[in-house]
Amino acid sequence: MKHKNRFLYQRDLSAAAVLLLFYTINTTPAQTTLPAEDIAEKALAATVYLEMQDKNGKTLGIGSGFFVQPNLIVTNYHVIEGAAKGTAKLVGKYIIENILMFLDDRLENVNIEVLKPALEAIDDLQRLRSLLRKAAKTESLEAFIIHLANGSQ
Protein backbone atom coordinates (compact mmCIF):
# COMPACT_ATOMS: atom_id res chain seq x y z
CA MET A 1 0.00 0.00 0.00
CA LYS A 2 2.86 2.35 0.77
CA HIS A 3 4.23 2.05 -2.80
CA LYS A 4 0.83 2.83 -4.29
CA ASN A 5 0.54 6.06 -2.26
CA ARG A 6 4.05 7.12 -3.24
CA PHE A 7 3.17 6.66 -6.94
CA LEU A 8 -0.01 8.72 -6.55
CA TYR A 9 1.91 11.42 -4.69
CA GLN A 10 4.58 11.62 -7.42
CA ARG A 11 1.92 11.66 -10.13
CA ASP A 12 0.03 14.48 -8.40
CA LEU A 13 3.25 16.42 -7.85
CA SER A 14 4.18 16.04 -11.54
CA ALA A 15 0.72 17.16 -12.63
CA ALA A 16 0.94 20.19 -10.34
CA ALA A 17 4.37 21.10 -11.77
CA VAL A 18 3.03 20.88 -15.32
CA LEU A 19 0.02 23.03 -14.47
CA LEU A 20 2.24 25.59 -12.75
CA LEU A 21 4.54 25.71 -15.77
CA PHE A 22 1.56 26.02 -18.13
CA TYR A 23 0.09 28.82 -15.98
CA THR A 24 3.43 30.64 -15.89
CA ILE A 25 3.83 30.42 -19.67
CA ASN A 26 0.28 31.62 -20.34
CA THR A 27 0.37 34.49 -17.85
CA THR A 28 3.80 35.86 -18.81
CA PRO A 29 3.30 39.24 -20.51
CA ALA A 30 3.97 39.19 -24.22
CA GLN A 31 7.31 40.57 -25.27
CA THR A 32 7.34 43.76 -27.27
CA THR A 33 7.60 42.90 -30.92
CA LEU A 34 9.38 44.85 -33.61
CA PRO A 35 7.42 46.31 -36.50
CA ALA A 36 7.45 44.11 -39.61
CA GLU A 37 9.62 46.63 -41.47
CA ASP A 38 12.34 46.40 -38.80
CA ILE A 39 12.24 42.61 -38.81
CA ALA A 40 12.50 42.55 -42.61
CA GLU A 41 15.36 45.04 -42.57
CA LYS A 42 17.34 42.95 -40.08
CA ALA A 43 16.66 39.72 -41.96
CA LEU A 44 17.51 41.16 -45.36
CA ALA A 45 20.74 42.63 -44.03
CA ALA A 46 21.89 39.06 -43.35
CA THR A 47 20.46 37.51 -46.54
CA VAL A 48 22.78 36.52 -49.37
CA TYR A 49 22.35 35.44 -52.97
CA LEU A 50 24.40 32.30 -53.67
CA GLU A 51 25.72 31.15 -57.03
CA MET A 52 27.43 27.77 -56.96
CA GLN A 53 29.81 26.44 -59.61
CA ASP A 54 31.60 23.22 -60.49
CA LYS A 55 35.40 22.97 -60.70
CA ASN A 56 35.31 24.30 -64.29
CA GLY A 57 33.35 27.42 -63.35
CA LYS A 58 30.03 26.24 -64.80
CA THR A 59 27.09 27.46 -62.75
CA LEU A 60 25.33 24.55 -61.08
CA GLY A 61 22.66 26.47 -59.28
CA ILE A 62 21.60 29.54 -57.40
CA GLY A 63 19.90 30.00 -54.09
CA SER A 64 19.81 32.07 -50.97
CA GLY A 65 21.21 31.83 -47.49
CA PHE A 66 21.81 33.98 -44.47
CA PHE A 67 24.63 34.83 -42.10
CA VAL A 68 24.47 33.22 -38.66
CA GLN A 69 28.00 34.41 -37.79
CA PRO A 70 30.30 36.85 -39.57
CA ASN A 71 31.93 34.08 -41.65
CA LEU A 72 29.20 31.43 -41.62
CA ILE A 73 26.28 31.22 -44.05
CA VAL A 74 23.42 28.75 -43.72
CA THR A 75 21.63 27.48 -46.82
CA ASN A 76 19.85 24.36 -48.04
CA TYR A 77 21.97 21.41 -49.09
CA HIS A 78 20.51 21.31 -52.60
CA VAL A 79 21.99 24.78 -53.23
CA ILE A 80 25.59 23.60 -52.64
CA GLU A 81 25.27 19.96 -53.67
CA GLY A 82 28.07 19.01 -56.08
CA ALA A 83 29.62 22.49 -56.06
CA ALA A 84 33.36 23.03 -55.97
CA LYS A 85 33.13 26.78 -55.37
CA GLY A 86 30.66 29.59 -55.25
CA THR A 87 29.98 33.21 -54.50
CA ALA A 88 27.78 34.89 -51.94
CA LYS A 89 26.52 38.40 -52.52
CA LEU A 90 24.52 40.49 -50.13
CA VAL A 91 21.03 40.90 -51.56
CA GLY A 92 21.37 44.68 -51.89
CA LYS A 93 24.63 44.37 -53.83
CA TYR A 94 23.03 41.78 -56.10
CA ILE A 95 20.18 44.20 -56.88
CA ILE A 96 22.70 46.99 -57.60
CA GLU A 97 24.56 44.74 -60.04
CA ASN A 98 21.28 43.99 -61.81
CA ILE A 99 20.36 47.67 -61.99
CA LEU A 100 23.72 48.41 -63.62
CA MET A 101 23.31 45.42 -65.97
CA PHE A 102 19.84 46.59 -67.09
CA LEU A 103 21.09 50.11 -67.69
CA ASP A 104 24.12 48.85 -69.58
CA ASP A 105 21.91 46.64 -71.78
CA ARG A 106 19.32 49.34 -72.46
CA LEU A 107 21.55 52.37 -72.93
CA GLU A 108 24.30 52.64 -75.50
CA ASN A 109 27.55 54.59 -75.13
CA VAL A 110 26.90 55.40 -71.47
CA ASN A 111 29.31 54.78 -68.59
CA ILE A 112 26.87 53.51 -66.01
CA GLU A 113 29.64 52.73 -63.48
CA VAL A 114 29.47 56.38 -62.37
CA LEU A 115 26.09 55.53 -60.79
CA LYS A 116 27.52 52.72 -58.65
CA PRO A 117 28.57 54.89 -55.66
CA ALA A 118 25.14 56.57 -55.55
CA LEU A 119 23.40 53.20 -55.66
CA GLU A 120 25.67 51.69 -53.00
CA ALA A 121 24.82 54.58 -50.67
CA ILE A 122 21.17 53.44 -50.66
CA ASP A 123 20.52 51.07 -47.77
CA ASP A 124 16.77 50.80 -48.31
CA LEU A 125 16.02 47.52 -50.08
CA GLN A 126 12.56 48.66 -51.19
CA ARG A 127 14.14 51.71 -52.80
CA LEU A 128 16.67 49.52 -54.60
CA ARG A 129 13.89 47.28 -55.89
CA SER A 130 12.06 50.34 -57.18
CA LEU A 131 15.22 51.44 -58.96
CA LEU A 132 15.63 47.97 -60.43
CA ARG A 133 12.11 48.14 -61.90
CA LYS A 134 12.86 51.62 -63.28
CA ALA A 135 16.18 50.46 -64.77
CA ALA A 136 14.42 47.59 -66.55
CA LYS A 137 12.05 50.06 -68.25
CA THR A 138 14.13 53.22 -68.65
CA GLU A 139 14.69 54.75 -72.06
CA SER A 140 17.36 57.26 -71.09
CA LEU A 141 20.03 57.81 -68.50
CA GLU A 142 18.47 61.19 -67.72
CA ALA A 143 15.12 59.60 -66.85
CA PHE A 144 16.83 57.12 -64.55
CA ILE A 145 18.91 59.83 -62.85
CA ILE A 146 15.81 61.97 -62.28
CA HIS A 147 14.10 58.95 -60.72
CA LEU A 148 17.21 58.35 -58.57
CA ALA A 149 17.48 61.99 -57.51
CA ASN A 150 13.78 62.42 -56.71
CA GLY A 151 13.60 59.34 -54.59
CA SER A 152 10.26 58.61 -56.24
CA GLN A 153 8.85 55.13 -56.01
Account of the protein in words:
This protein has 153 residues and is of the alpha+beta class. It has a single domain (36-150), classed as Thrombin, subunit H (Beta Barrel). The protein has 7 helices and 4 strands. Strands 3-2-1-4 form a 4-stranded antiparallel beta sheet. Helix 4 packs parallel to helix 6 (125-137). The longest helix is centred in the first third of the chain and has 26 residues, at 2-27.
Element pattern in H and E: HHEEEHEHHHH
**Biggest beta-sheet profile:** 4 strands, antiparallel
Overall morphology: flat
Outline the low-pLDDT stretches: 16-21
**What is the annotated CATH architecture?**
Beta Barrel
Structural category: alpha+beta
Offer a few descriptive terms.
153 residues, alpha+beta, Thrombin, subunit H, 4-stranded antiparallel sheet, 7 helices
